[in-house]
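Input set for joint prediction.
Command: fold jointly, output tokens.
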Amino acid sequence: MSTSDGDAACLLDVTALQAALARFAAERDWERFHSPKNLAMALAAEVGELLELFQWQTEAASSELARTPGSARAVRDELADVLLYLVRLADVLGVDLDEACRTKIAANARKYPVERARGRADKYDAI
Amino acid sequence: MSTSDGDAACLLDVTALQAALARFAAERDWERFHSPKNLAMALAAEVGELLELFQWQTEAASSELARTPGSARAVRDELADVLLYLVRLADVLGVDLDEACRTKIAANARKYPVERARGRADKYDAI
Amino acid sequence: MSTSDGDAACLLDVTALQAALARFAAERDWERFHSPKNLAMALAAEVGELLELFQWQTEAASSELARTPGSARAVRDELADVLLYLVRLADVLGVDLDEACRTKIAANARKYPVERARGRADKYDAI
Amino acid sequence: MSTSDGDAACLLDVTALQAALARFAAERDWERFHSPKNLAMALAAEVGELLELFQWQTEAASSELARTPGSARAVRDELADVLLYLVRLADVLGVDLDEACRTKIAANARKYPVERARGRADKYDAI
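tokens >
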């Protein structure tokens, strides 16, 4: 049994985060805005803010962005914003993210066997 | 102490997932492609595939998409793809997602006090 | 001959805009930042800002956004930002947008024949 | 008078394209799906497909993508898809893209004076 086969019992646990976000929305009466369609758009908008941090950086410089004082906070904040909306979206859709990730990793392992995918961006492109 | 204040000890745990993804990339010699810049683009591309599922749906219909046989698998797969790239991106950047989320939720709680934000999309828009 | 068949001589003309943007970049010595990869990211980031304007709006309200004093300027600005990066990207890639659009519209006309596509979101979804 | 000042009479003309797209939608009874909210999502989804073409490419390789036989058609098609949705979105919103672009370029010229913005990614980042 191996995690890269997607057989692992549990790859992630976002239960507490989902509960915190559900309570946050309920307390503010924001549930009415939180349709999956709207949350998917909000998620995409946050990813846009994340891209903005990387867009003019070289690949090498992009590796240092979370360790550079001037940008570290912004990188952490944008990653968090994306994750918050993603976890909230999965909750209102009723999707178990742990199960979804295990299924997808197992599918990826079948799609990209180690011996054939090794070092090939072109194969990977086909994702 | 309250999770919505961001004081909770732990809101999420993606340790096992990060390890699985790191191993998946290492086994295939894909680490060279996994610069934060590239992963941010891949994340955004996956969000585009998620949006495609929702784009012509009404808000009401979007709520049923993960429970409808014809679309449930696609919704779960796209949510997983987004999460996989996000968690991998955080790993190569060296960002602790749990800490980042707690910081961001605490900031949101200060920015949107319950009594002033209640039911107001306009306030929320300002995120 | 019909524009919806993609046979029209010219569907759009962005020549003057491309020249203006090329000069704008050259004057500021920004050409070195304008790789297609970077411009594609900048384009996506701007689309994120556009989505932010629509994310909590109902579909009906979204139709009024460019006519509402409080949001009209923002909508126009974000549409322009997206177009500026798209036109600049096509220029550095050497792509003729008019030809590309005519080819794509002709392909869409073959893919979605009027009699079969009429009023069907599910067909359309398949784009 | 100078185009980079945004004073030019006309920077772009998408009239024929807008008419072609309006007719395409009308013929298929798709106007009911074309709310600005939906079209903004479709635009973002197409940008995701564009990003997918560039995500694992180096900046240098990205410059050749529209000239490489294996990828040229895909690049042209995705650029066209983005433009088609953008032009359609502007149409249903009632936004004059030429005017919007001239206004935005004039604002950018004020925001990034040549002498101060020259060669500085950090200034540019602030867009």
